[in-house]
Amino acid sequence: MTIGEHTHKAKRKTFRRWKEAGWKTRREAYAAFREIIRGVVDAGYVGRPLPEQYDEFLLWLLAGHPQETEKLGAGLRYFTVCVSNRRRKGYGRYGFAVVDNEGVERTFSVNTALNGMNNTKRSDLMNAFREEVRDQILVVRQAALGKCCPETGELLTESNCEIDHNGVAFEALVRNFVNNNCLYFEQISSVHNPLALGAHRHTLLDRQLASMWAEFHRHFARLEAVSVEGHRRRTYARRNNVLGSIVS
Fold first, then answer.
1. Which regions of 89-168 does DSSP assign to beta strands (E)?
2. Separation CA 213–CA 237 (nearest Å)
3. What mean pLDDT do residues 226-247 have?
4. CATH code, domain carrying 58
5. Residue 195: which pLDDT band, with cuts at 50, 70 and 90?
6. Dihedral, CA atoms, 25, 26, 29, 30, nearest 10 degrees?
7. Residues 6+ apart with CB under 8 A from 6
8. What percentage of the chain's residues is helix, strand, coil (to nearest 5)?
9. How much is the pTM?
10. Following DSSP, what letter does each residue of 16-39 receive, concatenated?
């Protein structure tokens, strides 16, 4: 692979980070964040805990940061808005910060998080968590083939059927599981497993933890088969619902 090819692929991955949330351009994504910042600053939340309605969206944002684990520290207590050290005018002076359960405040760059810079350990972990519940997902997928997508009405086939975590998103389920067991992500390890069915072939190293996670997922996950287009619509709708509740 040449340097040019590597750079091109990196740019494509960067673009997908905000595209997956429903924005067509980086400018559109930043405009949405400026609107959020303006709203919370005008509402007097600088240095104060943000309402919980912001948590889902900001956790999604932080998940793209290469130092997500370090920023969360001893676990999320709340998000807040802080004044940036950079010499900017107006609302550009403000940014987001995480306050952990020990009271430590850590700022994080929206630009870095939104660019979706690769965090290999976190990516491998999330793939491992998915692999541990793949059998549950396949059962729902297999049972849905030949039925109609509840979102678009399309006939579900092997080529277009995907599984949506309806209600609570997959990454939120993982965070809930980790928090409920008083763990931090850096305490959990994944291992490359050539026998794994998934494309990334990672599983959790701690097999007892893997069993606990599978049971947690079986109890709390709401799985629903949808088409590729239906899945895309739901993803965008959730993002818009969260944004709508924030800026309204």
1. 94-100, 105-107, 161-165
2. 28
3. 75
4. 3.10.450.40
5. confident
6. -140
7. none
8. 55, 15, 30
9. 0.60
10. HHHHTTT-SSHHHHHHHHHHHHHH
Closest CA to 114 of 64, 71, 67: 64
| 3-state DSSP assignment of residue 10 | helix
Domain boundary pick from 84, 115, 146: 115
- CB within 8 A of 246, min separation 6: which ones? 36, 39, 53, 54, 57
In this structure, the answer to whether residues 134 and 239 fall within a common structural domain is yes
- The domain boundary, picked from 82, 115, 148, lies at 115
* In the block, residue with structure tokens 């980790």: 178
Query: CA 13, 14, 20, 23 torsion: positive or negative?
Result: negative
Segments of 101-182 assigned E as strands: 105-107, 161-165
Under a CB-based contact definition with an 8 Å cutoff, are residues 220 and 166 in contact?
Answer: no
136 and 55 part of one domain? no
Q: What is the largest CA-CA distance in the chain?
A: 59
CA–CA gap between residue 242 and residue 95 (Å, rounded): 19
Q: Is the predicted pLDDT of residue 215 greater than 90, yes or no?
A: yes
171-188, pLDDT tens digit by residue?
Answer: 889 988 988 888 877 788
For the four alpha carbons of 61, 67, 68 and 73, in that order, the dihedral sign comes to negative
83 forms bridges with which residues in the sheet? 94
Q: How many residues does the chain have?
A: 248
- Write out the two tokens for 58: 């900001």
Q: Is the same domain home to 36 and 98? A: yes
